[in-house]
C-alpha cells in the first residue's frame, strides 16, 4: 500500500481544525495508555495536566513537544496521525517494528494546555514559553527542562506552526519550514547542529515529492532564551518544525499530512533510509521571506491615492465560542511588487470600497471589497467557511 493511500483512509479523524485543547486529546490518551506509557510529569500554571507519551523501547531517545505555543496545533494533529500509524497492524509492519526497536520516542502532545484553551501563543501568565529557556519562570518550562535533563535525549523535536506570511523569491509559499538552531552567537557548525541539519535534509528531500519548492528554513540567529538554541548549546541535536499554510487550507489539514510524512522520513520509515551525506545541503534549502499575504488586490484605484495601488489583506485568528474565526483586515497598501498571496485578483483600475467606506485604512477590519461604481462586483469577501 502506498503511504498516501494509508493516510487518506486512516489519519486521526478525532482531531480536526485549528482549535485543539486537552479536552480533544484526552480520549486519545485514554485509548493509547493501554499500550503505551502515558505519564504526567508536570502541570500548567492553571493546574492542567501536561501528559507525556512514551513509544518504543530502542536505544535512541527522542524527545518532542507540540503546542508550546497554544495556538499552534497543526503538529499536534500530525503527531497523533503518527501514533495511529505506529499503532496499526495492517501495513508497514517491518518498518514499524524497526522503529519501535530502534527508538524510544517521548512526546509532549500539548506542552501549553492553558494557552491552547485560550488560543494564545503565550501561557496563562502571558509568557512565551519559547523565550523562557533561561529564566524557567513557568511551570510548563520547568516540566520540559526536568524531562530533558532526566532523559538526556539523543535528539529533540520542537513542533510549531508558522504564519501564512512566509514565502520565497520565486513566488511560492513556504508550507513547511525547518531550523537547526544555533548553539552560540557565532552560529558555529557544531556536531549537534550537523546531526540536526542532516536529518532536516532527509525530510526536505522527501517533501519535494509533495510540495516541491515549498519547504524553507529559518534564519539561525542565536537567542539563548529559546528552547531550541538552549538545547543545541547543551550538545543535543534539536530540530524546529514549522507547519505553515498550503493554498486555501486554513484548517491546515493538508499541512498536517506533510508533517506526518516528515516524521516518517525522520524515523527512516519512508524515503531515503541513509542519512544525508553532506550536511551542507541544508544551506541549499531556501530561507523564508516575509513576502506573503492571504489576498492581494492588484491595480486598484483608491479615493485618496493618485496612482493605482495593490491592497494586501490578511486574516486574524479569533476564538469565539470554542471556534476559530478568521477575520480579514487591511494589512498593507502600496505597489507591493515583491509581495505574493494565496489569492491575487486584478481589479483592472476599478475604484474600490470596503464596508461602504471610500477610504481604505491599514489595520481596518473588513468584510468585503466592492466596485464603487458597480456594487454587484465583489473583489473580496470574507469566506464564512474559513472557520476551524
TrEMBL record:
SMART domains: Zn_pept (SM00631). Keywords: Hydrolase, Metalloprotease, Protease, Zinc. Signal peptide: none annotated. GO terms for biological process: proteolysis. It holds the Pfam family Peptidase_M14. InterPro entries: Peptidase_M14 (IPR000834). It comes from the Bacteria. One of its GO terms (molecular function) is zinc ion binding. Residues 7-270 form the Peptidase M14 domain. One of its GO terms (cellular component) is extracellular space. Coiled coil: none annotated. The keyword Nuclease does not apply. Its cofactor is Zn(2+). Belongs to the peptidase M14 family. This is Peptidase M14 domain-containing protein.
